[in-house]
């Protein structure tokens, strides 16, 4: 396993842009493959980007890991979610449960088993005593965040510690063979900090980035938007200081996912973005390290309002629109076979010359 970087700044400095020369070679190869030009659509674009990530015109990514970080939020005291905070530790137990089908009884477990992805579960800051479990990574910085409506959710020190904890688990997943990393999350109330981060980083109105999350009614949605507006009015952070925004308005699992992304990019691995909460971490990440964007691949555009604005800012095209809004990394895991397939076309298809197939006009 590579040596850990000791600060977030070191992680940021370790990220280099994708290899532009290799991508040019990959585009040239794509143009010669036995198919009409552009006939594989977005897969062609993805394959070229993967070539740049892995530094070879015929990339061969293999292992897929989804890292599910769990954390609680003090802002749930404001009644912003349809579910109580007790659901967070209960879902952690579900991620780890033994079922007739294998380890884990949540959606991300079922989908990961189906596509051959490995699931890592981390306690990044659950507000409960979680029993020790061989498949639970104990990485809690504190038991949930503070109430962002009235004060900063985290201190700068807590934020950095959570980011580095995420980087450490990403490093382990890469050591275990992961070439595609899917950051995922579980935390009741976490679309509230994700919306607050998005509003601040994108400079958008609260209503444009604040949706129903777990499916709240109109009254709760109005309260949620009011809570976020109050948090922004505190003026506890500015977009020019991304880590400050994360500390002020974020969550422990959001910081943890940021660490996963930074470490993956530093080690030249592809990052598959799931949904809105993951997108808020990516907004912080590209503000810190613009080259991080080269390593991000958007799975789908989720049903949560504001996700499209995140993707537009990140310059990412989603691979599907399935109306997902679950989180856990589910959409990212669903997208992993598309990335692997895109790489396979560039790597394994023959060119017209290799196959002795006449080219079209």
From TrEMBL:
Belongs to the CobT family. One of its GO terms (molecular function) is nicotinate-nucleotide-dimethylbenzimidazole phosphoribosyltransferase activity. Pfam families: DBI_PRT (PF02277). It is an enzyme of class 2 (transferase). The active site is at 328 (proton acceptor). Gene3D superfamilies: 1.10.1610.10, 3.40.50.10210. One of its GO terms (biological process) is cobalamin biosynthetic process. Its EC number is 2.4.2.21. The lineage of its organism: Bacteria, Thermotogati, Deinococcota, Deinococci, Deinococcales. Catalyzes the synthesis of alpha-ribazole-5'-phosphate from nicotinate mononucleotide (NAMN) and 5,6-dimethylbenzimidazole (DMB). Keywords: Cobalamin biosynthesis, Glycosyltransferase, Transferase. Pathway: Nucleoside biosynthesis; alpha-ribazole biosynthesis; alpha-ribazole from 5,6-dimethylbenzimidazole: step 1/2. The gene is cobT. Transmembrane segments: none annotated. This is Nicotinate-nucleotide--dimethylbenzimidazole phosphoribosyltransferase. It catalyses: 5,6-dimethylbenzimidazole + nicotinate beta-D-ribonucleotide = alpha-ribazole 5'-phosphate + nicotinate + H(+).
């Amino acid at each position: 396993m590579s040596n850990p970087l000791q600060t977030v700044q070191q992680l940021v400095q370790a990220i280099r842009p994708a290899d532009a020369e290799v991508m040019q070679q990959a585009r040239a190869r794509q143009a010669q493959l036995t198919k009409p030009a552009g006939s594989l659509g977005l897969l062609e674009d993805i394959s070229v980007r993967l070539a740049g990530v892995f530094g070879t015109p015929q990339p061969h990514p293999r292992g897929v890991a989804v890292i599910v970080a769990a954390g609680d939020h003090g802002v749930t005291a404001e009644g912003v979610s349809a579910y109580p905070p007790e659901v967070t530790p209960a879902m952690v137990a579900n991620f780890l449960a033994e079922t007739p089908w294998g380890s884990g009884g949540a959606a991300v477990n079922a989908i990961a088993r189906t596509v051959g992805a490995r699931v890592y579960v981390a306690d990044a800051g659950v507000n409960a005593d979680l029993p020790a479990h061989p498949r639970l990574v104990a990485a809690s910085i504190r038991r949930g965040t503070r109430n962002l409506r009235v004060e900063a959710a985290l201190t700068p020190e807590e934020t950095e510690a959570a980011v580095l904890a995420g980087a450490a688990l990403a490093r382990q997943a890469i050591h275990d063979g992961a070439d595609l990393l899917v950051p995922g999350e579980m935390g009741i109330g976490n679309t509230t900090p994700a919306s607050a981060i998005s509003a601040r980083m994108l400079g958008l109105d609260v209503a444009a980035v604040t949706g129903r999350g777990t499916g709240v009614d109109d009254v709760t949605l109005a309260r949620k938007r009011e809570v976020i507006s109050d948090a922004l009015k505190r003026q506890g952070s500015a977009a020019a200081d991304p880590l400050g925004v994360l500390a002020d308005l974020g969550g422990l699992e959001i910081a943890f996912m940021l660490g996963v992304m930074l470490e993956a990019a530093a080690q030249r691995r592809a990052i598959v973005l799931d949904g809105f909460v993951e997108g808020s971490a990516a907004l912080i990440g590209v503000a810190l390290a613009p080259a991080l964007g080269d390593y991000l691949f958007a799975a789908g555009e989720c049903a949560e309002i504001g996700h499209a604005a995140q993707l537009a800012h990140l310059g990412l095209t989603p691979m599907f629109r399935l109306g997902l809004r679950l989180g856990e990394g589910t959409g990212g895991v669903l997208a992993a076979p598309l990335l692997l397939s895109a790489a396979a076309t560039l790597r394994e298809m023959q060119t017209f010359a290799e196959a002795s197939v006449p080219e079209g006009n």
